[in-house]
Amino acid sequence: MSELKWVENRAESLLATHGLLSEWRFEWDRATTRFGQCDHRTKRITLSRHLSDKASDDDVEQVILHEIAHALAGSREGHGTKWRSIAARIGYTGGRTHHQAPATDRAKWLGRCPSGHEIIRFRKPGKPTSCAQCNPRFDKTHLIVWSVRATYSTETSFQKQT
Questions:
Q1: Whether the Cβ atoms of residue 37 and residue 75 lie closer than 8 Å to each other
Q2: Is 94 a member of any domain?
């Protein structure tokens, strides 16, 4: 588990090392399924507090390097050749995505099909959905009924500390 203050210090140190600290800044966000984001418009690199709180220091550092590679490559590069070259040069060793489990303790919705299969979602689907485990195609006999999870938590460990 990464200490959040350590993450902030490490992000700023890496931004400085790669010549970005004068224009770019690091901030936290409340994302629950994506670990990091590079916003070229606002010149911000953000990391999920929820996922950083659960990840190892090495995993967090790799996400920071991933986002710094995006900042250095430019807004139109995606995960293309230029981005991959920059990422390798600055020490990024991971792939295009993280393997940290989503912060499902923050997911509000629980869906159940008539057979008892359960699905957790962060947002309630806007249209009827059916259970893909029962039938991979939409099937009205396997409609999912949505309810607010009994264990739904809006408070996390980092909120308790502050």
A1: no
A2: no
Domain count within the chain: 2
Model confidence at 151, pLDDT cuts 50, 70, 90, reads: confident
Segment 147-153 long-range contacts (CB within 8 Å, at least 24 positions apart): 147/109, 147/110, 147/111, 147/112, 148/108, 148/109, 148/110, 149/107, 149/108, 149/109, 149/110, 149/120, 151/105, 152/106, 152/107, 152/108, 153/105, 153/106
Mean pLDDT of the chain: 88
Query: Which residue, 65, 89, 113, sits at the end of a domain?
Result: 89
Contact 153, 105 (CB under 8 A): yes
Q: Stretch 78-105: mean pLDDT, rounded?
A: 81
pTM score: 0.66
Phi and psi dihedrals of 16, rounded to 5?
-65, -45
Rounded CA-CA distance 45/2 in Å is 18
Q: What percent of the chain has pLDDT over 90?
A: 67
In a domain, 98, yes or no: no
- For residue 65, give its domain range: 4-89
Higher pLDDT, 32 or 113: 113
Q: Do 20 and 72 touch, CB atoms closer than 8 A?
A: yes
